[in-house]
Amino acid sequence: MRAWLIAGLAVLASACATPPAATPDNPEDATQVDTCGIARFQHLIGTRADQIDRATLPQGTRVITPEMAVTMDFRAERLNIMVGTNGIVGSMRCF
C-alpha cells in the first residue's frame, strides 16, 4: 500500500513539471523562423572573420572555421557563423 502511495505522489509531481520549450526538430526550420536573430547579422556575410567585433554578437554565438571541432548539439537560439578556408564569412545558421 505504501509503495502505491509513493508511486502516486511521484506521478502527480511529474505532472506539475514545466514542459520544455518548443524548438524545431530540423535545423533548417530554425533558420527559417529566425530563432537566433540571424537577420540582424546577414551583413557580415562576405566580410573577413577577423574583422567581426565579437562583442556585438549574441552570447553563445559560434564563429566556425573549417578546421574547428564543434559539438553537434542543436540549440535553435544559437547563431553559428560559418567561415570558409579563405577566412571569409560564407553563411550563417541557427542551430
Give a nutshell description of this structure.
By secondary structure, this protein is of the alpha+beta class.
Instruction: Report the β-strand fraction as a percent range.
Output: 5-15%
**Could you estimate the helical fraction of the residues in percent?**
10-25%
- Based on DSSP secondary structure assignment, what is the total number of beta strands? 3
Strand line-up in the sheet with most strands: 1-2-3
> CATH superfamily, called what?
Trypsin Inhibitor V, subunit A
Which helices and strands occur, and which strands form pairs?
Elements: H1 2-15, H2 27-33, E1 62-64, E2 79-83, E3 89-94
Parallel strand pairs: 1-2
Antiparallel strand pairs: 2-3
Please explain how this structure is put together.
It is a single chain. This protein has helices at residues 2-15, 27-33; strands spanning 62-64, 79-83, 89-94. The protein has 95 residues and is α+β, with helices and mostly antiparallel strands. It has one domain (22-94): Trypsin Inhibitor V, subunit A (Trypsin Inhibitor V, Chain A, 2-Layer Sandwich). The protein has a 3-stranded mixed β-sheet. β2 and β3 (89-94) form a beta hairpin.
